[in-house]
């Protein structure tokens, strides 16, 4: 893969920002659903939420595979604790970005509800209806989703600190319009 050694390549950037936008979109959609009465409109918005969630999971797995072929640039000089926090934060984000959609799928299947991706294709039901599993999955999904939002917010805050306080170019490495090294 040919790209600057101090920047993420365009594919990694596209996947990063697409996932970020989709996570915000999934959050907004679920907030909208919670305010809606039961009916076809609510079902439609919930279907969009599920579709976006599955897409997040797929894109994150694709991004992890892409990282294998196009490793990220090395971190700039920073204290050991900061580099360790970065690795831990990124690992946690990747895990949550896969777990949240998977647990959401378990929740839907165990509730006996199909997962139709943008109305184009319906995923096969991999679990039979199970109300107790549905209740557990619902709680876990919500807790993990909130944790994902908190850690993603910390990730964004850390990027801004790197950019505007430490001025080490960490954020610029992921911006498509950032300075080329």
Explain the overall architecture.
With 181 residues, the protein is mainly alpha-helical. It has a single domain, classed as Fumarate Reductase Cytochrome B subunit. It is 67% helix and 2% strand. It contains 4 helices and 2 strands. A two-stranded antiparallel sheet has the order 1-2. Helix 1 runs antiparallel to helix 2 (40-69) and helix 2 (40-69) crosses helix 3. The protein is elongated and about 50 Å long.
Average pLDDT score: 93
**In CATH, what is the class?**
Mainly Alpha
Strand order, sheet with most strands: 1-2
The count of strands amounts to 2
The proportion of residues in beta strands is under 5%
What general form does the structure show?
elongated
Q: Give the helix proportion (percent range).
A: 55-70%
Report the CATH topology name.
Fumarate Reductase Cytochrome B subunit
Can you tell me the number of structural domains?
Answer: 1
Order of helices and strands: HHHEEH
Secondary structure tally, helices: 4
| Sheet of most strands | 2 strands, antiparallel
Instruction: State the low-pLDDT regions, or none.
Output: none
Q: TL;DR of this structure?
A:
With 181 residues, the chain is mostly helical.
Topology:
Layout: H1 10-34, H2 40-69, H3 80-110, E1 116-117, E2 121-122, H4 131-166
Antiparallel strand pairs: 1-2
């Amino acid at each position: 893969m040919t790209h600057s050694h101090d920047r993420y390549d365009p594919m990694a950037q596209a996947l990063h920002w697409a996932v970020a936008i989709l996570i915000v979109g999934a959050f907004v959609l679920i907030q909208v659903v919670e305010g809606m009465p039961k009916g076809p409109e609510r079902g439609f918005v919930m279907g969009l939420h599920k579709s976006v969630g599955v897409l997040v999971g797929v894109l994150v797995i694709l991004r992890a595979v892409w990282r294998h072929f196009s490793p990220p640039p090395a971190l700039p000089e920073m204290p050991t604790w900061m580099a360790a926090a970065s690795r831990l934060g990124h690992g946690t984000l990747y895990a949550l970005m896969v777990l949240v959609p998977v647990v959401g799928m378990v929740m839907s299947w165990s509730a006996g509800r199909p997962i139709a991706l943008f109305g184009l294709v319906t995923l096969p039901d991999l679990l039979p209806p199970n109300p107790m599993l549905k209740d557990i999955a619902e709680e876990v999904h919500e807790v993990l989703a909130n944790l994902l939002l908190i850690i993603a917010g910390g990730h964004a805050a850390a990027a801004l600190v790197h950019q505007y306080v430490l001025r080490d170019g960490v954020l610029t490495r992921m911006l498509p319009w950032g300075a080329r090294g």
